[in-house]
Amino acid sequence: MDETPGPRRRSVRDWIVDVAMVVLAFLFGLTALVDPPHEPTPPPNSTVAVTVELAVLVAGCAALWWRRRWPLQVAGVLMAASAVFVMVGGAMLVALFSLAVHRPPRTSLPVFGVGVLAAWANISIHPDQNAPDLVMFLLSVAMMAALTGWGISVRHRRELVDSLRERAVHAEGEARLRAERVQHQVRESIAREIHDVLGHRLSMLSVHAGALEYRPDASEDEVRRSAQVIRESAHQALQDLREVIGVLRAPVGELPQPTMADLRQLVAEADHVGASVELSEDYEGSVPERTGRAAYRIVQEALTNVRKHAPGSDTRVRVSGEPGGELRVEVANGPSPDPGAEESHPAGSGQGLVGLAERVSLASGRLEHGPTADGGWRLRAWLPWPT
């Protein structure tokens, strides 16, 4: 709630409340005319005194119209007037309540203290012969205390509502950011999966299509074998694409993922492309699903890069490790026997190795890659193998 005064356009509810407060304050002031306090010595100019009281009452009720903009000033003026005039007491009570609503207790409570002194001054100036002064004083203080407490309660309730509304807006913003972050992670995961799955198949298509293009003197058997591999690879790529699209349609976790059991088939398919790919496995026990999937993707991406950058080169795939330690994956290839063959393949974007580094990092592993002394390339990864 704002503590600084400022103009605010009144709503329909504000108009109704303001008019009601002015009318109630005016009627409360008129009750003093029903049974006016009996002075010890009635003044000879009582008519003038009543006229002045009515004028102050009208002015005090009119001042209530600006109590929202200047609650402290209006309450202070009416508090001072209530110390001398009787009829303005109702307007003073409304102003005190409004002050407690629009200003913190550190402001409204001192004004309440001033009101207690004003009430005692009013009773001293206008004693009531029908009731003891102490009773009238305590009654006045009780009314002011009740309205001040009520106003503070209304203020705290409004602050609570504003705080809950702000928290709801903040929580909604955080939920939206979390949803966007999760959506971004899902998109990255799908993009990585598409790259890993289709990149392997399409690289095989590229190898054989390039061979047909750059070897017009190929024999009929070689052309037929290349066409068969192209057809099978295209069919398998279509199947893989359907599985990847299934990620978007199926609930999380329902799509089957490759494991270490599929590694031999992957190497066998790469070996049929035309280059020699040797697989060496030196481990015992069952590799955890997450670790095996990461190892499969590492070998898959490495073989894809070999076909792109060193087609026809001899490649060695070595997987070793033990439970409770690490699963070591190494893919090394020599230089391409045909240096000009790489020109028939489009240059890669480098995102494959970036994606592998991210995948290995998510698996809490390490990744190294770089050229070898003989002009080839080696990629090594270490993945944790929990018992």
TrEMBL record:
Top-level taxon of the source organism: Bacteria
Start-end of Basic and acidic residues biased regions: 315-329
Annotated EC: 2.7.13.3
UniProt entry keywords in alphabetical sequence: ATP-binding, Kinase, Membrane, Nucleotide-binding, Phosphoprotein, Transferase, Transmembrane, Transmembrane helix, Two-component regulatory system
Domain Histidine kinase/HSP90-like ATPase: 294-385
Residues annotated as transmembrane: 15-34, 46-66, 78-101, 107-125, 134-152
Region (Disordered): 310-352
Catalytic activity: ATP + protein L-histidine = ADP + protein N-phospho-L-histidine
GO MF: kinase activity
Domain Signal transduction histidine kinase subgroup 3 dimerisation and phosphoacceptor: 187-251
A matching Pfam family: HisKA_3
Keyword Transport: no
Domain DUF7134: 13-158
Protein name: histidine kinase
